[in-house]
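Progress note, sequence design subtask.
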């Protein structure tokens, strides 16, 4: 046996515990976290021996792989099978090991609850960088963004979490306000829609360079309302419905039965403070997968 392949048992256990913490903070489920960690190690052992030897920091490689698997699970709709979609695996060799994570926050449960309603990329940016100390370039690679884009994602996540920790919104209130926004959009009522938005509301449009979309945030209740009404203008074959998006009620726009936009609403003090509109076809791919048929009783 090559003694270079032997690792102290304490280090092995700490490594697995670290991966479980990463996956738990990303997904919020101990069972899912275990599944992610098991898949992470399977990917490690599927690497050729020579490739594993080139990895200077196995723990960093494993953490990055676990983060990528979690992100892929987060972007799938509830009915989708995560095993059908390949998860990200980091390039080789990997950078130096990040500093150990510090999770001793008094309001950790509140933060975890708020994370459930963050879009996947924002959640990954906050958890992997702010909680677990991964470097910005590593996290940017995991979420598939440039470093400046990653910085914006992390900043938006921090702002959202500050709002939620100070003024949490109940699922019932989220649902009621989301349905009111839908009704205002369907009726084309700009005044009603603007009244549901915070005066300093901000809307972000993510076209990913694949469709024409605003590349800068739209600010102000009336400006955001006008932008949404233009985007969601009722036309033949266009529908707008409420759906669970990242654990909270959001909006899904379809054109000719194809999901064309997924909209997340951030709420504080009974008003919509931020609107995140995903138009990038690549990110909507999983939403357009056919749902499995309902099981037929024998």
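Output:
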């Amino acid at each position: 046996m090559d003694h270079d392949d032997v690792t102290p048992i304490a280090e092995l256990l700490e490594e697995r515990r670290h991966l479980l913490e990463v996956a738990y903070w990303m997904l919020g489920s101990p069972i899912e976290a275990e599944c992610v960690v098991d898949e992470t190690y399977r990917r490690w052992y599927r690497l050729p021996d020579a490739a594993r030897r080139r990895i200077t920091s196995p723990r960093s490689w494993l953490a990055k792989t676990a983060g990528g698997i979690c992100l892929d699970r987060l972007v799938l709709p509830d009915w989708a099978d995560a095993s059908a979609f390949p998860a990200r695996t980091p390039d080789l060799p990997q950078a130096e090991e990040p500093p150990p994570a510090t999770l001793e926050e008094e309001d950790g449960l509140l933060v975890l609850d708020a994370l459930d309603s963050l879009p996947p990329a924002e959640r990954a940016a906050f958890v992997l960088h702010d909680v677990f100390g991964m470097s910005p370039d590593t996290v940017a690679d995991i979420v598939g963004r440039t470093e400046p884009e990653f910085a914006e994602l992390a900043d938006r996540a921090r702002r959202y979490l500050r709002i939620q920790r100070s003024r949490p919104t109940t699922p019932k209130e989220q649902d009621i306000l989301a349905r009111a926004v839908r009704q205002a959009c369907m009726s084309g009522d700009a005044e009603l829609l603007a009244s549901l938005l915070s005066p300093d509301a901000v809307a972000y449009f993510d076209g990913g360079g694949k469709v024409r979309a605003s590349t800068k945030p739209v600010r102000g209740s009336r400006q955001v309302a006008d932008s949404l009404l233009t985007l969601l203008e009722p036309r033949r074959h266009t529908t707008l419905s409420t759906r669970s998006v990242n654990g909270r009620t959001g909006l899904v726009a379809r054109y000719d039965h194809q999901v064309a936009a997924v909209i997340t609403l951030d709420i504080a003090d009974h008003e919509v403070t931020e609107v995140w509109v995903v138009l990038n076809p690549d990110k909507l791919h999983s939403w357009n997968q056919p749902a499995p048929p309902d099981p037929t009783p024998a």
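The chain has two domains: 9-166, 171-288. Work on this subtask will continue into the next period as scheduled.
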